[in-house]
Amino acid sequence: MFSINQRAVRVVKEEILPQAEELNCRCHILSNGATVVDMGVDAPGGYSAALLFIKATIGAMGHAVYGRFREDGLDLPSIDVYIDHPQEACLSSQFSGWKLPANDAPSGINPIGSGPARAIARNDIFSQAWSYKDNHHETVFAAQTQRLPDEAVAEDVAAACGVSLENVYILAARTGSLAGCIQVCSRTVEASIWRLERKGFDISKIISGMGTCPIAPPIADECIAMDRVNTALLYGVTVRYVVNCKDEEIEAVIDKVPFNASRRYGERFADIFEEGHRDFYLVDKDIHTVARYEIVNYASGNQFSAGEIRVDMLRESFGLRG
Q1: Domain ranges of the chain
Q2: Residue 88 phi/psi, 5° resolution?
Q3: Alpha-carbon distances of 309 from 79, 234, 237, rounded to whole Å
Q4: Which of 45, 116, 139, 182 counts the most CB atoms within 10 A of its CB?
Q5: CA–CA separation, 62 vs 250, rounded Å?
Q6: What is the tens place of the pLDDT at every residue in 55-96?
Q7: Which residues in the chain show pLDDT less than 70?
Q8: Residue 312, class by beta-carbon neighbours within 10 Å (0-12 exposed, 13-18 middle, 19+ buried)?
């Protein structure tokens, strides 16, 4: 069985660290030997850094490219991901399931953890939803945070994964940074495969998944940034799955999974986030989904779709004028 951490560490060592300066990133070796790569906290980061951030957090188990989102007169850049092992790449790795301690950020938003380290630690319900467990002596962790992770964070990751501190690699970016916005908007298959599992679909029957999401405009205000990236997912994403099952299995869930089937549909994410005291782990779990689903059944050749894109919600959240 492949090691998702081995693949991710290779991305960090061969593609990120050697060209950190060109990527507008900064590398820090902590006093305990762990490595932190600033990809959008104090360093500017950018488009190239974002693609590598995504590649590392899905364990190089897929492909991310830039495209265009065109819908009802709106024309925006998009981030498109193609993943052939979405169970391991997303549930076991990319999902932001690792709760980090509060770090007194001025916005009051607690940091969020993700990445291949979760596939070793399996310390959250999202990673435990799939049977995969990784075993590797090095690990990659990702932090969505306003402050660079310190020695204490690295020690927690090392202990949870049973690895030496010098073998811990942490990538970090603010939500509102360019790399931060893009990597969150890439979480299309991630959010939707969790929704499919929660609604009773047998995710072992998923062959491949892909998703496209408009890239939320970067902004220094983390609260506005959090609203923008999540609005992009809830109201702007289309995911497309290839599965191998009976048509009846798809028909049983297809109308239940898009965001327009949620009790919170039509609400602004900013309001839902405030209701959850700006803590992503307290926010209503019924928002863990995306706007639109398309599922092709390999067994029958039939395609099923449900959900809708809401350009009006995107315009409002993104601050688009004209």
Answers
A1: 4-318
A2: -75, -45
A3: 16, 9, 7
A4: 116
A5: 24
A6: 999 999 999 999 999 999 999 999 999 999 999 999 999 999
A7: 322
A8: exposed
